[in-house]
Design a protein that fits this description.
Strand order of the largest sheet: 1-2-3-5-9-8
Shape: flat
Radius of gyration: 52 Å
Oligomer: single chain
Largest sheet: 6 strands, antiparallel
Structural class: alpha+beta
Helix content: 10-25%
Number of strands: 66
Number of helices: 16
Length: 1070
């Protein structure tokens, strides 16, 4: 097989494997290294250039290739032998295997990868999974989300430290496969085995033995990887979703209890630590965590079968795509402390190095918990060997992981049979710390960070965990893609990235598949890119999407029809719309393939009508009480005269036949026919039997109607005669002159009486026309004067005449902006006025005093907005006695007892506006008072329970503690918020157990001063005393110098003012 000069293009029946032809097998790796491609665009450009020239060059290359086989020695060093694809079509979920045969197996290749491209442009890279001499195996697991067709692009390898690239299409390898979708040219019905004739025509200088050898090598490569017998090439490859995969393996379980000592069982401890580790590790970004068991279960095939137990654990990890397996254990055997085992460097040094670093990171974190360090260790057998002849690792979980292609380590957290270690292991919090330490070590090994979302206003950003944000990039979280713009803002709605358009829903999640938006359907590839300007097969149906991505529906796309659901109807032929002769009559076929029926249709500027059977109509047609006429061609007659059966008819621009009217100077009767010889009359006045009539333009006399002739209106009776004199119509009176003209907008003397007619000709009645009055009959009453409402001075005093002509009497009256009172004699009142047991005061101008203070005879009174005098009450901070007089030396005091006018949130808002920091001491030591909001809630609750105003107690606490900063004799740990018992000179005063008890004691002590009522709750006030009861009901009296009883809370005369000042500030924080 190592001497092949031409790729074998054959499907192996035993493994269903495709070998892709290489155009020229004499190309060396170093000759192709300059063809590496780093961008998708350049790949597409070169691919198209190759495709344009391949046909012209194919015959020349074939001839040249055969000559080289005959004349040149076989090149094996650096030679690409063949490329094979396991399955040309995969049904997800499934794993694709790609084999590359390169060189003869002696090359010093340290790394290799295969690169292929999805049809939507997505580039996929797979690192080598396994290697057997010259055969390199690559594996990739596909899910339903990966649906599409894929094309191999390049084989990249590192030889002697130099990365080199072979562009597969440049050397004739056209290799494709499909996932849940057939690629162009794939025939799912074809046989799995290519005929011998096909093999013969595609193989050059290869005999049957070489074909058989290729079959055996590929089959062996696949079988070996499935059995776990080939060493993994790279343990650092991440899963397809971009996340590191960590598998936590809680040792033992079920019937296998592990070590037992000091009342502990190892399997239970292992599981707890693993769960704590998983919980912590999942807080990091870029990692997916699995557990081999999450309950008390044994993983072996049968009890006591340790080999299958370990094999099944590693098999699970491999299935999940593990990068690291951490086997969690508790040690025994007389030692003390923690130790971590990792793989040796044999067979795969990369796995060994990864294991060493992860082991050290975990050990460092566990030692911080106070565990004695026993170091990180490897243990190697002295007999069994890896395939390369090096000695195997001792521990099965480590050895099997290495065979499976990933790193496995064992963490022995402590000794279960050591008394000191056992004490720690019995502490649940210590087990949690162990789990966190394991997770922290793993995170440090992989450089993981606790990335997190941050909301900025109504927008979201994603913090990388180091203060920076995701910008201009995609992010995959828990299987969901998000995109962030250059400012780091998570995108929603339509989003353009590069040449593709995506739709991100309101949560920012990228849309795939179908989307119904604004009555339009769109489709998005699994990559999220919107499908535009093309046909697309989806679930065995073909759809068309326009340049904006809108799915076409119920229409023709070129010669193809899509139904109302957008699906292409394969057998439906596109119809040619137009006139069709059916049974000697005409129909019209529309673009939807249906004939026009029971409706109008405009065709080339002419209107046609079709009956219920779809036939074009001709001749007369009656629709909706209108007559139409259609020519023999079917065109409707419009806007012209038309002779029909010896009669002439006129049709307007809508096609309506005219009837019983004049068309210019020609008259058509009720049937629409022109009446020849009928002259169009001349409109105007006609005198008949000595009376006047009026001929209208239609030749008829005006009858029973109004008619404007010139600028005047006339009325004609039922016989057509012009009317004169009085006329009553619809409860209105009109007057028409002897000329017949209606009188409008003026006075008119009629039979020695004067009447007024408005601009409509209506006679006015029982109303004023300016300063003149007309009675119910409409006649002017000459001696009735129109009253002028307003002020009148009579006998040196004022009265007010209303619109009715009567003077205001015994009533209030609003005149302008002032309110006045008129007595029983109709005079305006001034000075004091008593009405309905209320007092009012009217100034010298008669205006009622309202909404202000007013000095009267050296006494100050207050009048409300309705003018009523205040009495025996407080107006703001001023007191008026029972007579309404202000008592200057009486000041308003502030009650301590009563309902609170503030809320807990209002108190907290006030505290924050003072730029004060809530003490962390309370946050840490009092579960009920973690925040200032909690603190204020306690004050409101305690004050409400005893009837004390919360704003008084809270303001007092702020004065006494300096806004909870303390600093005096009382310290923060005493929970004493009002200096209770602190008498100065270092006396610390009383102490309480919690914030609530301290607040309750203060509230109860305030009630002791302010009230004589009993407490509602149990007394916690150590200074409660009957001699204090009711001695200070007001805030002002808390200052001893201001208290008439000679007692109080504080000796400072300004103590109460400080409390009241804070209360005012609290009230402003709404």
């Amino acid at each position: 097989m190592k001497n092949l000069n031409r790729v074998i293009a054959v499907l192996l029946a035993t493994v269903m494997f495709c070998l892709m032809p290489v155009a020229d097998m004499t190309v060396k790796a170093e000759d192709t290294s300059d063809t590496s491609i780093t961008e998708n665009d350049s790949y597409q450009t070169e691919k198209s250039e190759i495709e344009e020239n391949v046909e012209a060059d194919s015959s020349q290359e074939e001839s040249q290739s055969e000559q080289e086989v005959d004349s040149q020695e076989v090149v094996s060093d650096g030679l690409l032998n063949y490329v094979g694809i396991d399955k040309p079509y995969l049904t997800s979920p499934d794993t694709q295997k790609i084999v590359v045969s390169y060189g003869d197996g002696t090359e010093a290749i340290s790394e290799a990868k295969i690169i292929y491209q999805k049809a939507d442009g997505t580039i996929v890279e797979d690192a080598i999974s396994s290697r057997q001499e010259e055969i390199f195996l690559f594996e990739h697991s596909f899910s339903s989300e990966d649906k599409g067709t894929y094309t191999l692009l390049r084989f990249v390898y590192v030889e002697d430290g130099i990365e080199q690239t072979i562009e597969l299409q440049d050397i004739g390898v056209e290799a494709m496969f499909g996932v849940d979708e057939e690629y162009p040219g794939y025939n799912s019905d074809s046989s799995d085995v290519i005929s011998q004739e096909e093999i013969d025509t595609s193989v050059v200088s290869v005999d049957s033995d070489e074909v058989a050898t290729a079959q055996e090598e590929i089959a062996d490569a696949i079988d070996n990887t499935e059995d776990g017998g080939i060493a993994a090439y790279s343990s650092e490859e991440q899963t397809k979703n971009g996340n590191i995969v960590v598998v936590l393996d809680p040792g033992h379980g079920g019937s296998d209890g592990g070590a037992v000592a000091n009342g502990l069982q190892e399997k239970d401890l292992n599981l707890k630590i693993a769960k704590y580790c998983k919980e912590e590790l999942e807080q990091y970004s870029g990692v997916t965590v699995y557990m081999t068991r999450e309950g008390d279960s044994y993983l072996g095939d049968r009890v006591g079968d340790a080999a299958s137990d370990l094999a099944n654990r590693v098999s699970k990890a491999k299935e999940w795509g593990a990068d690291l397996l951490v086997s969690i254990h508790i040690n025994s055997g007389g030692g003390q402390g923690v130790e971590v085992y990792y793989p040796n460097s044999n067979y795969n040094a990369t796995i060994g190095k990864n294991g060493e670093d992860s082991a050290q990171q975990i050990l460092d974190e566990l030692v911080k918990l106070g565990l004695k360090s026993r170091g990180i260790k490897i243990r190697t057998v002295s007999y069994d060997k890896y395939p390369d002849g090096s000695l195997e690792d001792w521990y099965g979980i480590i050895r099997r992981s290495k065979y499976a292609g990933f790193t496995g380590i064992i963490v022995e957290h402590a000794f279960i049979d050591n008394v000191n270690d056992a004490v720690k292991l019995k502490d649940e919090s210590f087990l949690k710390q162990c789990g966190i330490a394991d997770a922290t070590g793993i995170a440090k090994h992989y450089g993981l960070s606790k990335e997190h979302w941050e909301q900025v206003g109504s927008q979201w950003k994603y913090n990388n965990g180091d203060g920076t944000y995701k910008t201009s990039q995609w992010l995959l979280l828990k299987g969901v893609w998000y995109y962030f713009d250059s400012k780091g803002i998570m995108q929603t709605g339509w989003t353009k990235v590069g040449d593709a358009t995506y739709y991100m829903n309101t949560s920012g999640a990228m849309q795939t598949g179908w989307l119904h938006l604004d009555d339009t359907w769109y489709y998005f590839e699994t990559s999220g890119a919107r499908v535009t300007g093309c046909w697309k097969w989806i679930n065995s149906k073909c759809y068309y999407f326009d340049v904006n991505g809108c799915m076409a529906a119920d229409t023709w796309i070129g010669d193809y029809y899509v139904d109302a659901n957008g699906a292409w109807i394969a057998g439906k032929q596109r119809v040619t719309p137009g006139w069709k002769s059916v049974s000697g009559r005409w129909k019209y076929l529309e673009s939807n393939g249906e004939y026009v029926k029971s409706r109008w249709l405009l065709v080339k500027n002419s209107w046609y009508h079709f009956d219920a059977n779809g036939y074009m109509q001709t001749g007369w047609l009656s629709l909706n009480s209108k007559w139409y006429y259609f020519e023999s061609s079917g065109a409707m007659v419009t806007d012209r005269w038309r002779w029909i059966n010896g009669k002439c008819y006129y049709f307007d621009n809508n096609g309506y036949m005219a009837a019983n009217t004049w068309i210019g100077d020609y008259y058509v009767d009720s049937n629409g026919a022109w009446v020849k010889g009928k002259q169009k009359p001349t409109s105007g006045w006609k005198k008949i039997s000595g009376r006047w009539k009026y001929v209208e333009s239609n030749g008829n006399y005006a009858q029973s109607k109004w008619l404007q002739v010139g600028s005047s209106w006339y009325h004609f009776d039922a016989n057509g005669y012009m009317q004169t004199g009085w006329l009553s119509l619809n409860n209105k009176w009109y007057y028409l002159e002897s000329s017949g003209a209606m009188v409008t907008d003026r006075w008119r003397w009629i039979n020695s009486k004067c009447y007024y007619f408005d601009n409509n000709g209506y006679m006015a009645a029982d109303t004023w026309i300016g300063d003149y009055y007309v009675d119910a009959s409409g006649a002017w009453i000459s001696d009735k004067q129109k009253v002028v409402p307003g002020w009148k001075e009579i006998s040196g005093r004022k009265k007010y005449m209303e619109e009715s002509g009567e003077y205001a009497k015994s009533k209030w009256l609003q005149i302008g902006t002032g309110k006045y009172y008129f007595d029983a004699d109709e005079y305006m009142h001034t000075g004091w006025l008593a009405l309905d047991d209320e007092w009012y005061y009217l100034a010298s101008d008669g205006v009622m005093v309202s909404d202000r203070w007013c000095w009267i005879n050296n006494v100050c009174y207050y009048f409300y907005s309705n003018g009523r005098m205040a009495a025996d009450t407080w107006i703001g901070d001023y007191y008026v006695d029972a007579n309404g007089a202000w008592i200057a030396d009486k000041k308003k005091l502030t009650d301590i007892m009563g309902s609170s006018s503030v809320t807990a949130s209002q108190l907290a808002k006030f505290y924050k506006t003072m730029n004060k920091q809530y003490p962390s001491y309370y946050s840490k030591n009092d579960e009920e008072a973690k925040t200032i909001e909690d603190f204020c809630k306690i004050y409101v609750e305690e004050c409400k329970s005893e009837g004390v105003r919360a704003e008084v107690a809270f303001a007092q606490a702020m004065v006494e503690t300096g806004y909870l900063s303390f600093g005096g004799d009382v310290d923060i740990s005493q929970y004493n918020f009002a200096g209770m018992g602190a008498t100065g000179n270092g006396v610390k005063g009383n102490s309480f157990s919690t914030v609530r008890i301290g607040v309750r004691a203060q509230v109860q002590h305030l009630k002791c001063y302010a009230s004589t009522e009993e407490l509602n709750g149990t007394c916690v006030d150590p200074r409660w005393g009957k001699w204090l009861r009711g001695t200070a009901p007001y805030v002002e009296w808390l200052s001893i110098p201001n208290n008439p009883n000679g007692t109080g809370w504080a000796s400072s005369a300004t103590y109460a003012n400080s409390i009241k000042s804070i209360m005012e500030s609290i009230n402003k924080c709404k």
